[in-house]
Design a protein that fits this description.
Structural class: alpha+beta
Radius of gyration: 25 Å
Largest sheet: 11 strands, mixed
Number of strands: 28
Number of helices: 14
Helix content: 10-25%
Shape: globular
Length: about 600
């Protein structure tokens, strides 16, 4: 007998997301499972520092407060809660939830998943966590848990683990699991699927976008939607944008399954409804990604405001005046942002920003002594001297790295509501892999399955892709790339990805032929000298680029002006190129109706 679709929602895309979202999702319409994603690379560093101060901490405290307000409501409505808010201490969060339930008089059972914490791992590591799959979540739900909290599982596992419980899928039901993983990836970042951070945001009212949910069918297909009456929009475009977010390549490697992103098909299924189908799955790798955070050293920064004329000369003067104070500092980075305008009518638009960032293993070399040297220039430097904010003390910065460990060596354990410990057996060894992999569970350089004959997926070398011959020369117009194409970008450790998609077949053919890896490097000079790989996702009419090393040691190190590459895609869309005029003059179909 076929079971009805699972209705699973999301109420958090990061630690600090909208607090009221849990209640909004519980009261907005029917749900079977409500998930929440609270973990990211930077979050693990924050939780690691929390744990240093108090070993009983290490979990997302916000989640506990949210359930204090909503646990009774979830129980009343029969909604299971599944969240990775356990962070570095899922057992501690589970105990706190049991105490909370007893205090509130709500008869719920709580379970948790552990085994991801591999500390001690290596010298200097603050945290080291393997990315587990959804099988532990499945076991907890099968044992009757009303609330399941985990540590570091893949973001999509919150959904795929719930779906495997609902439909009682076998561990080798790869196509079905892959479909659920893709749905989970769409949901995991919350309102990014409902119009948040969307390239074509002016088409929709996204002042308060609702959170997404998915109706997952027994065959692994799904429909992404949101509660009626909530803000934002669900369109093929918003779902495409989220599918391209933080993925690298055509294979999305995970601990339970490898999802083939080049097989995903999207179709409108009604107002604010998008169907996801035809996702193929392959065996997962026999290794797990381990995310490791460390304290990398100490950093500080000063932003000098340069107003009016002779901006370059003013910047050169400051650099010369601070040269001696900076001589012993390990890393010194100067950046001049020419935000000034000619003939400005306000002081702000007359000003440029000179940013000094310093890093060193010792807090003394980038602390008060250095900032004092900057402040002492106040009356003896360029005319109009001032800084954007008073310089402060040195601050520690983090470093994120990843590595691989054999999956069989990681103790994936479901701790059931009756405290029984249920070990999750590792998956059987997969066939040999030859191509580059991708996904939340795959580190840089992970290896994925070989391409299936006949597919259009291509992974380009840094030297440039193999692209089809350019179309015949047609009249062109110089215009921003974003006038025709959407983009979304994000981070994976020190790497960045940029997904670019077209809204028509004709625009896709031009994009595919034109935006090579070399062309991307030309448009974004900051990527010069870095390895750039290009992957094609023809069913999504999209290209996905991976830029290796652009983020240095990851978000916590503050390596770039945009440390998580969130706006890298928008920079690309702002660059001007020669676009065929007939493509720019073609009106795209309404988002809800495009195939």
């Amino acid at each position: 007998m076929t079971r009805r679709p699972l209705r699973v929602g999301n109420a958090s895309g990061f630690y600090g997301d909208r607090f009221a979202a849990v209640r909004e999702m519980l009261t907005g319409g029917p749900l079977d499972v409500l998930t929440g994603d609270y973990l990211a690379e930077l979050t693990m560093l924050i939780l690691g520092r929390d744990r240093l101060k108090n070993p009983d901490l290490g979990y997302a405290k916000t989640f506990l407060r949210q359930l204090e307000e909503n646990l009774a409501l979830a129980h009343e409505r029969g909604v299971r809660i599944v969240a990775n808010a356990g962070g570095l201490n899922p057992a501690g969060l589970a105990d706190a939830l049991r105490e909370l339930a007893a205090k509130l008089g709500v008869p719920v059972s709580v379970a948790h998943v552990e085994g991801d914490d591999l500390m001690p791992f290596s010298e200097g590591a603050l945290t080291a966590n393997a990315y587990l799959g959804g099988a532990g979540i499945t076991a907890c739900l099968r044992a009757g848990a009303d609330v399941v909290v985990t540590g570091r599982v893949t973001d999509a596992a919150l959904v795929s683990g719930s779906a495997a419980w609902w439909f009682d899928w076998a561990p080798d039901a790869y196509d079905r699991l892959a479909g659920a993983v893709v749905a989970g990836h769409v949901l995991e970042c919350g309102t990014q699927a409902t119009g948040g951070n969307y390239a074509f945001f002016t088409r929709h009212d996204i002042r308060t976008p609702g959170f997404p949910l998915a109706e997952i069918a027994e065959d692994g297909s799904s429909v992404v939607t949101k509660h009626a009456g909530t803000g934002g929009a669900i369109t093929v475009g918003t779902v495409t944008a989220q599918l391209l977010y933080e993925t690298q390549g055509v294979r999305y490697l995970g601990p339970d399954v490898t999802a083939r992103l080049d097989t995903v098909r999207l179709a409108p299924a009604g107002p604010d409804r998008v169907a996801i189908s035809d996702v193929l799955g392959e065996a997962p790798p026999d290794t797990l990604k381990v995310g490791v955070t460390r304290i990398g050293g100490w950093r500080n920064e000063v932003v000098f405001v340069l107003t009016g004329l002779d901006v370059d000369a003013k910047a050169d003067l400051v650099k010369a005046q601070l040269a001696e104070a900076l001589s012993g500092v390990a890393t010194v980075t100067w950046t001049l942002a020419r935000t000034d305008h000619p003939d400005p009518d306000t002081e702000e638009t007359a000003s440029a920003l000179l940013r000094l960032v310093v890093r060193d293993p010792s807090p003394d070399r980038v602390g008060r002594g250095l900032t004092a040297a900057a402040v002492e220039l106040a009356l003896g430097s360029y005319p109009g001297f001032h800084v954007s904010a008073p310089p402060g003390p040195a601050q520690p910065y983090g470093v994120f790295t990843s590595s691989l460990v054999p999956a069989a060596t990681v103790p994936h354990v479901a701790v059931l509501p009756d405290t029984t410990r249920h070990p999750i057996p590792p998956m059987p060894a997969p066939p040999s892999f030859e191509g580059r992999g991708s996904g939340d569970g795959a580190p840089e350089g992970a290896r994925g399955a070989a391409p299936v004959p006949g597919t259009a997926a291509v992974a380009d070398s840094p030297a440039g892709p193999t692209a089809p011959a350019p179309p015949e020369r047609a009249p062109t117009t110089r215009a921003p790339l974003g006038a025709l194409f959407g983009a979304r970008s994000g981070d994976k450790g020190g790497d960045a990805n940029i997904g670019v998609w077209a809204e028509s077949d004709a625009a896709w053919q031009w994009l595919r032929a034109t935006l090579t890896a070399d062309a991307l490097t030309t448009l974004l000079p900051e990527t010069a000298g870095l390895p750039v790989a290009r992957h094609e996702l023809p069913h999504l009419r999209a290209l996905n680029f991976t830029v290796t090393g652009i983020l240095g040691a990851g978000v916590a190190s503050g390596h770039r002006f945009d440390p998580q590459a969130k706006a890298l895609g928008e920079w690309l869309r702002a660059r001007h190129v020669d676009i065929p005029t007939h493509l720019l003059s073609s009106d795209p179909a309404p988002e809800g109706t495009r195939p």
